Amino acid sequence: MKDVKARTVFVPPHRERGAVDARIAESGLRPTAQRSVVYGVLLDHAKEHPTADEIFIQAKTEKPEISMATVYNCLDALVKHHLVKQVHLDRAATRYCPNMEEHAHFLCETCGEVWDFEIAVKPRMSGFRVPSGFAVTQREVNMRGVCPACAEQEVVR
Ligand SMILES: [Zn+2]
Ligand SMILES: [Zn+2]
Predict the structure, then answer these.
(1) Ligand 2 centroid to 115 CA: how many Å?
(2) From ligand 2's centre to the CA of 145, what distance in Å?
(3) How far is the CA of 136 from the centre of ligand 1 (A)?
(4) 100-156: what fold?
(5) Cβ neighbours of residue 99 closer than 8 Å, sequence gap 6 or more
(6) Of the bound ligands, which one is closest to the alpha carbon of residue 154?
(7) Low-confidence residues of the chain, pLDDT below 50?
(8) For the whole model, what pTM was predicted?
């Protein structure tokens, strides 16, 4: 199991006091208490790629007075300032990812876990045949399948 995790690009950083606010400020946003709670929750739960609802539940444990609308506002601001990106892996709610390195997402259809995979092609290439005249500014690569742990369980069964 260990080597599977080691091959993903990103080890979610642990939230450090002050570091969260510093990163928010660097992005050009004013670090408010709400923004730092929301961003902090995302950093702590980066691996899960949580939805706004899940972030709200976590944020509430730290800041009981925070509202869902505030969480959405914070998420919008964090997305606009490139601290966090939206991920659409299934028809379920939008998830959020604080890993701003370019990467692909892998969703295990059995356990629902999400992995970040490093992209092997050169940064300016899409990996697809892009007709001339089209300029790619962004790409999102989402894969689904079965993770090694679930594949193993299936064999046992
Ligand atoms: Zn991700
Ligand atoms: Zn799985």
Answers:
(1) 10
(2) 8
(3) 20
(4) Dna Ligase; domain 1 (3.30.1490)
(5) 9, 10, 12, 46, 116
(6) 2
(7) 1-12
(8) 0.78
